[in-house]
## 1
Amino acid sequence: MSAIPSGGAEVAAEVAAATPIRPPQKQRSRFTADTVTGWLFSAPAIILIACFIILPFILAFYFSFTNERLLSPPGRETQWIGFDNYARVFNNPRFWTALTNNITFSIVVVPLQTFFALFLAILVNQKLRGVVVFRTIFFIPITVVMAASAVIWVVLLNPQGLINAFFEIITFGNFSPDWLGDPAYAMAGIIMVSIWASVGFQMVILLAALQDVPESLYEAARLDGANNWQQFRNVTLPGIRNPLLFVLTITTILAFRLFDQVWIMPDRPGGPLDATRTLMVDIVDTGLNQQAVGRGSALSVIFLFIVLAVTIVQRRLVKQEGEIK
Amino acid sequence: MSAATKGAPAGQGATLQEANASIRRQHIRHYAVAYGVLILLALFFIFPIAFMIAGSFKADTSVIADSGSLKAFIPEPFVGLENYQQAAERGNFWTSFRNSAIISAGIVFGGLLINSLFGYALARVPFRGKGLLLLIVVALIIVPFETLAVPLLLIMAELGWTDTLHAQIIPFLAQPLYIFLFYSFFLGIPRELEEAAKIDGAGAATTFFRIAAPLAKPAYAAAGILMFLASWGQYLWPVMVTRSVDARPLPMGIAEFQGLPPRDWGDIMAYAAMMVIPLLIVFIIFQRQFVRGVATSGLKG
């Protein structure tokens, strides 16, 4: 399977180019039959996409300019309030706390997890007896539901738990924080669970990419006297460039979607003292708990633009490579 | 190597053997390091699961008390299945399990049918408007569900679907990513069989179900596994749309059970174990398909 870069317009253009266009004259006799078939096969998906993706997508933009509420008291009319929701969001320090937390989380997790995943992928790509067993083990956390992982790690991260036992050994008893209770360490605790739970996913993608690099390139490099590091630097890295960019993008997007762990693990969602409050916590808190659908929608739109920005940056990088070629 | 040693004159034999021995030592050292690193990493990935399993058989108070030492991995004092019974009764495990099973089955089977039909139509059936539909599908792939959640919640409230199982199934049936996955898979398989079937007078539905769909088994496996993992683990949406125990799937169930006083950690670990272990067994049996399915998502994503 060829690597197709993620991201809308570029794929769309490729796909459109690849779509076979049948000359209409040839098809005239079957044209109506094919049209009926085409629309019949497409109808269920089109109706569902219209109702549950396109409609809420449009409503998200529309509501973000109104004071819509989840359960309106009788007689209350929804009003158009312009950019008020956005102004309130941007003037709310808790929004900036949440955004900062997401950014902190991604700055730590994206490089760390990608590097770790690449390391694991290279390890299990070796020709060693029994290496598949290790690949399976590294992948196991993917099959553990995040909510269950979060609950297990609450115990592991408790002040007298295994994680602190480990840190006490390597620091001779000088380091044993209350991970989930101390605002200074809560995000670090969340980061540990997140990496444990999802690094296997990135590993598998990078492993597939590593296996796609032709062996002949390595042979040629060895003939030229390249050592292991030079082979990695000049053959492996360029060979897995696009999958690596894809992994970086998806990990960044997943970092902005951070929700399950921070909702479940601290004593209250996003706690302690908003130390793990993320944009998603903000969205659910606003849209559901405060029933402020208008402001929740404004947050959702902001969230969309962040995700789009990340995707566009990745696409730019992928394009650059195309130009070099 | 050994052939060279044997064939060498007696005088050079000693040095060659020494060289061989040193290469072998190097190899052994290399293997020792590689396996050492692999085993350490394996321990890192396994220990939370071992901890959960041991804890699920332990007296409740010992789970936290032993949590800082290697005793954490020894199920003592052993209480048999008591924690499992408690998790089932106090935690309403089976209600949530049933809900999760219905939701995942609905999404996987319904989603496979709906998305593959659309993907097939886009790849194979020449019909008016298809180019635009394809563009829309591809553009929608990047819209994250998180953006839609709040307005979707209002739609659910308007439809009276709040706190139901179908509110957790129907919105997730049609998914642009899987439509695109099927579309590109169907594009890649040869047309001849389908065209032969058409000439034999088979209708479009017969051609799809008898010929095309069976050829696309790998796509169905990959999409099915991804749909299952995503729906089985979904937490955000149930938090928003469910209110009562009757509609709660497992991830909600365990989160609620964890917050339910008294916090009996043995019971909570048993709840987690019941959630995790069946899937773990399925994964170990079908791990090749799982890994391939997830890798596909990466390349197509």
Note: The CA atoms of residues 65 and 84 of chain A lie 7 Å apart.
## 2
Amino acid sequence: MSDADRSADTRDNEPDITSRRGFLGVAAVAMGGSLLAGGVRLIEVQAATPASPAAGATAGANPTVRWGLLIDSDKCASGCTDCVTACNTENGLATPQRATDAQWIRKVEIKEIKTGRSASLPVMCQHCAEPPCVDVCPTGASFKRADGIVMVDRHSCIGCRYCVMACPYQARSFIHEALTEQKPEVPRGKGCVESCTLCVHRIDQGQQDTACAEACTKAGHNAISFGNLNDPDSEISRRARAAATTQLRADLRLDLGVRYQGL
Amino acid sequence: MPTIEPARAGTQCVADPATMRREHPAMLEHQRDETVRGGIRGNKASLKACIGCHASPATGSVAKSEANFCVSCHSYAAVRIDCFGCHAARPAATAMSKQP
């Protein structure tokens, strides 16, 4: 086919294309009209029903916030387990008796063999921005809230424990046996995986302190500070700006919400 | 018919009894997702608020004995719920002490 023939073909087809476009345009306008009408009706219905949020309801997770912790291992006292005790009390966890018992936060003692320098630090869910537990969860029960807190929705958790395997920090626990005497604000039960929630029930009520950070301050160590990593004026951001901080297993590039100082 | 324990005196339910009987599972389920995933607490259909008013003065719970609020009806209707496998069936200690 010569160039001239091809251009003639194109010209021949032009009216068809135009008419099809014209039809689509008309169809789009028609659909737009019906959508607008539908939208108006929806607003009317919404206005007619009573406002769903009750007067005392909280605003919910703020997507502009990223909650995190900064842990200074120089200030963390070796042998002190106040943060662990406070976490257990706050969330209704029993003191672990066996290796399979739930543990949301644990104290770790590390020592560099060559120099003999030792450090003590608490390890809990690191609240990754790219959480592997969320990636592997087959039911969507593992999720990250808008404010960066990684949690388990126990309503959809089937207890498969993929997340336990996927977590590089061994932060998750599985509940093997039926529990009693749970805290009303911290529901927990058999057959589900759970981990540190950054005291989400406190955060939702506007309290900006986790049980572990509160206990550490009360003990006079001030090793744990909780705050908004996205706010440059928050105490945690100021501390992270002033001193070198590290993320555990930074090579995994998970962008952690928990940072360590003095490691 | 089951005998339903009356709610704590001086409290007002979030909807009329007919609506609550029919709609309470949907209301609770809707709010559960808002709360767990969205962090919105203290909304209308909160399980904690239900328990706050409906816990039995005798057992302090909504699910401890057959006569308690949730269990009385669910056992009659042969509905097995697992809410209280995880959720506390009694109000927080502070709320309990406020009860007359």
Note: The interface with chain B takes residues 52-54, 56-61, 143, 145-147, 151, 153-155, 178-179, 181-185, 187-192, 200-201, 203-205 of chain A (CB under 8 Å).
